[in-house]
Amino acid sequence: MKARYRTWLAVPPDERELARNAHPPVNGQKAIVWDSEHKLWYAQPGVELSLLDKWLPRPQNFSTNDSDPVT
């Protein structure tokens, strides 16, 4: 599935280079970009998210049970 919007990623510091090289450039631009204001990595629109699955946030992994809402 291709990203339609900016997609935030959960990239640990030691996997920075691996994540940056996981996807080729899109329309001549880097596929993954560092947002210095939010201090987070994000995938540009048009990026194939399946190549970045390892770094997609999974908030359900932090829920204590299915009745505990995670925002």
What is the strand and helix layout of this fold?
Blueprint (H helix, E strand, L loop, with lengths): L6 E3 L6 H5 L11 E4 L4 E4 L28
Protein name: DNA primase
InterPro entries: DUF5710 (IPR043764)
Task: Walk me through this protein's architecture.
Residues 6-57 form the DUF5710 domain. This is DNA primase. Pfam families: DUF5710. It comes from Salmonella diarizonae. This protein has 71 residues and is mainly β. 7% of the residues lie in helices and 15% in strands. It has one helix at 16-20, and strands at residues 7-9, 32-35, 40-43. Strands 1-3-2 form a three-stranded antiparallel β-sheet, with no helix packed on it. The longest helix has 5 residues, at 16-20. The model has no long low-confidence stretch (mean pLDDT 88).
Query: In percent, how much strand structure appears in the residues?
Result: 15-25%
Average pLDDT value? 88
Major sheet strand order: 1-3-2
Q: What structural class do you assign from the helix and strand content? A: mainly beta
Count of individual beta strands: 3
How many strands, what sense, and barrel or not for the largest sheet?
Answer: 3 strands, antiparallel
| Radius of gyration based on Cα positions | 13 Å
How many structural domains? 1
Q: What count of helical segments does DSSP give?
A: 1
Low-confidence stretches: none
What fraction, in percent, of the residue positions are helical? under 10%
What is the molecular shape?
Answer: globular
